[in-house]
Design goal:
The two termini are 38 Å apart. This protein is globular. Helix 1 packs across helix 9, helix 5 runs antiparallel to helix 10 and helix 6 runs parallel beside helix 8. The chain is an alpha/beta fold. The strands form two sheets. Strands 8-9-10-7-11-12-13 form a seven-stranded mixed beta sheet. Strands 3-2-1-4-5-6 form a six-stranded parallel beta sheet, sandwiched between helices. It contains ten helices and 13 strands.
């Protein structure tokens, strides 16, 4: 079948998704919604689709199969719930929502309506990430010692001016829940594969965190631009998360996993290196995302994986419960920073 997709909220990430959808043989972008006519009509012209100023009208009139929610983070629940009520499957940008309570409402609404709910964490669909995940699943790292992520990025003051980013109401936090949520998800995903904890269990057992606003001092930012987390995973493995928008001019993101039998590092999602105590013939080259085997974007792969799961009625690896885990870790970190003690994600 060909899935009819509508995008709710046509900011910058909607363009990325629109291009990704063009790569999928079983998908068609038929509509987009936003409240601004000039912006909506320009998007519709660019991608040959319809524009609606009301997403609920779009769900009905455009005869959608899937709603791709790309609104500000704290506005994901409402369109997701409305789509479910109209029998439309929901695929939602990161983070799934800004609190676990709102995510649980999304999960409940979709389950009650009998539609699928999925999250977008496109970094999982880089070939380098898949390669390292496969190594973790097969136990190549042995008994784990550490799984860590560093996102030492920079955003200028202008990034936060007159924007929803950096606000508690719509961003839900700062550098940790926005820029670094992909890294948090990657850490728990890789650790979960190595520990084989099962799909319903968050592999992070507790979080201790410090957060502060150190690189921006204007009224335009309400939340942290710097966060440092210590993680303890369920088997005792340790980890760290560095999340910033305060380190000019910004450095490359790094994800590291290692144990008694080997270690791997992914840099900027694209390339990395690994070494194992016991080498195998199929692991002589370091994991890389360039060039990819099919020349598709990670966004296209992420959306296609969701569509494949819907069509086959098979599990989707980033369903609502899985996409919730990273947000649970982030919320535990924010609570820890406030109360000054370790907090268990829930």
């Amino acid at each position: 079948m060909t899935f009819r997709i509508g995008i709710v909220g046509i900011g910058s990430v909607a363009d990325t998704h629109a291009r990704g959808i063009e790569e999928i043989a079983t998908a068609e972008l038929v509509a987009g919604s936003c409240r601004t006519r000039t912006k909506g009509e320009a998007f519709a012209t660019k991608y040959g689709c319809a524009w609606y100023d009301d997403y609920e009208v779009m769900f009905v009139e455009a005869d959608l199969d899937v709603a791709l929610v790309c609104t500000p983070s704290g506005n994901h629940l409402e369109p997701a719930r409305a789509a479910a009520e109209w029998g439309v499957h929901v695929l939602c940008e990161k983070p799934l929502e800004i609190t676990t309570e709102r995510i649980d409402e999304m999960i409940s609404a979709c389950e009650h309506a009998g539609v699928r709910l999925g999250g977008i964490f496109q970094n999982r669909y880089h070939p380098a990430a898949r390669t390292v995940h496969e190594a973790a699943t097969s136990g190549r790292f042995g008994d784990l010692a550490a799984v860590s992520v560093s996102v030492p990025w920079w955003r200028p003051d202008e990034y936060y001016e007159d924007a929803w980013q950096g606000t508690r109401a719509l961003d839900g936090g700062g550098a940790l829940i926005n820029q670094s949520i992909h890294g948090v998800d990657m850490a728990q995903w890789l650790a979960g594969a190595a520990l084989d904890v099962g799909p319903e269990v968050n592999p992070v057992a507790e979080v201790f965190a410090y957060t502060d606003t150190l690189g921006h001092d204007g009224p335009e930012i309400e939340v942290e631009d710097t966060a440092v987390l210590s993680l303890r995973y369920r088997d005792g493995t340790l980890g760290q998360v560095l999340a910033t928008t305060s380190m000019y001019p910004g450095l490359e993101k790094r994800i590291q996993i290692g144990g008694r039998d080997g270690s791997a590092e992914i840099v900027a999602d694209e390339h990395g290196e690994w070494q194992f105590r016991h080498e195998r013939g199929d692991e002589t080259e370091a994991p890389t995302s360039s060039p990819s085997a099919d020349d598709r974007s990670e966004y296209g792969r992420n959306v296609e994986a969701f569509l494949d799961a819907v069509e086959s009625d098979e599990p989707y690896e980033l369903d609502g419960h899985e996409a919730r885990k990273a947000v649970a870790i982030v919320r535990a970190a924010y609570e820890s920073a406030e109360v000054g003690r370790p907090v268990v994600p829930n």
